Amino acid sequence: MKLLQMSYAALSLPLKSCLLYLSVFREDYAIKKDPLIRVWIAEGFIPRKDTEGRGQQTREESISLWETGERYFNELIMRRLIQPVFNYNDDQAVGCTVHGLILHFIKSSQGKFVTFGADLSSGLFPGSMHTVRRLSLDRYDDQDQDVTLASAAVHLWKVRSITVLGGIEGVASTRPALTVSGKIEGTSLLPSFKLIRVLDLEDSDSLRSRHLKGIQGLVLLRHLGVAGTAIDKLPEEIGELGQLETLDLRRTTKLSILPASIAKQKMLAHLLIDGHVKVPKKILKMQGFEEVSTIGVDSKSKLHSVIDLMDRSEQLRVLGVRL
């Protein structure tokens, strides 16, 4: 523990925040690198230039943020604070895991940097001495199963991020999904979280389109992850999220088309969908994308739209196309 304390003390303040955020995940949970960096950026852990009043970031600023995130990730690996996960294509880490000893150290050092479902289910609701900034709910934790966002919403009005850990990929879950609706069926809880920046509900089986009602009120939201959920439609009001940078809709098999109002967003940089989802042409005319995947191309006109997107988007780093 003394060695860990020395290593932790040597980290810069932003890198300390990036490391502490990893306590959101359970031991040996496979954390994908790219989504992690996107959340680090959305949380503000990676310093950025003040773009208020200037609209979109420049290409240089966007690349700098991403490169800084990758540098932080690689530094944590080199310091042996996280364990890299590789694929079979090259020697570049595509993710990481956190050893149990490291995780224990992070949680003991964080000073309530992250609040867990177990804290809420045990009755330790935040008082004047404890403001919940980040909430992690694990559907594979027995204590978290008793937690519903409805029961905790009154205590979470200052929360900045909510992360729900879903099932393990490739393994069928027998656990019930966490409850995200209100006390009355169909009630949305989103208006309760005015200050939220990261909302990651990936693989939350109980999530339905009606639960996104009122999402336009989350004016500070930067990261919306609803991959692997049962939503079949996005509200038109989603276009009013002026700060949204990441929209992750992968593996939403019931979703067939995106609302054209998304084209109103000036800050959207990462649009992650599956190839079967129809994308209105107005969206493909947006210029601030850094990553778009996967666009289904089934006609010459759609192909020309994708080529135009490549031509206009100076910041584009990743483009996925399904022919």
From TrEMBL:
Keywords: Plant defense, Repeat. Residues 179-322 form the Disease resistance R13L4/SHOC-2-like LRR domain. GO terms for biological process: defense response to bacterium; innate immune response-activating signaling pathway; plant-type hypersensitive response. Signal peptide: none annotated. This is Disease resistance protein RPM1. It comes from Triticum urartu. Residues 24-105 form the Disease resistance protein winged helix domain. InterPro entries: Disease_R_plants (IPR044974), LRR_dom_sf (IPR032675), LRR_R13L4/SHOC2-like (IPR055414), WH-like_DNA-bd_sf (IPR036388), WHD_DRP (IPR058922). Pfam families: LRR_14, WHD_DRP. The keyword Ribonucleoprotein does not apply. It comes from the Eukaryota.
